[in-house]
Amino acid sequence: MADRTGSGPPLGIRVADERDVVALAQLRRAWLEERAGRPVEDPGFEAAFEQWWRVELPRRTFWLAEVGTPRSGFTAIGSINVVEIVHMPRPGTRGGRIGHVGNAFVLAAFADRGVPAALLSAALEHARERRYRRLLLAPTSGSAAFYRRAGFASAGEQLLMLDPSTLPAPPPP
């Protein structure tokens, strides 16, 4: 998908692949640093990200937003991914699939240029093609209105969470 970011360089959205691991890791680092307001030192982060990427790739689709041209080169400016969850079938019903949108991020300089909408559009098309029953996400307070405008609605209070580290230790054997 090719688009424009207003008067800037051409915008492209594409499914990320092995060549993009470094760019995706850089975007993930930028996400944290924008929120922290400072550089975050972690010399082993890129290696840890690459290991995570390899584990997640079979069930996760990543999209990369980039600006540039083949002649000038491309710069990664945002990404989004969708985890596919396949439900177990039960008698009388076959399992279906849902998608969970995660890790959406666009560099602040491009956030108001249609890049978030272009990335989400790619994820929505993927959901249609994969025939997901639902597409879920856990928006930040700052992004909730964006997703509502795109058609997402509240899923209610049905999601519960437990941090296993808060459980008491089991009795000794």
TrEMBL record:
Q: Which InterPro entries match?
A: Acyl_CoA_acyltransferase, Bact_Acetyltransf, GNAT_dom
Q: Give the coiled coil ranges.
A: none
What sequence ranges are listed for the domain N-acetyltransferase? Answer: 11-173
Gene3D superfamilies documented for this protein: 3.40.630.30
Highest taxon of source: Bacteria
Q: List, alphabetically, the Pfam families matched.
A: Acetyltransf_1
Q: Recite the UniProt keywords alphabetically.
A: Acyltransferase, Transferase
- The answer to keyword Aminoacyl-tRNA synthetase applying to this record is no
Name it. GNAT family N-acetyltransferase
Species assigned in the record: Pseudonocardia xinjiangensis
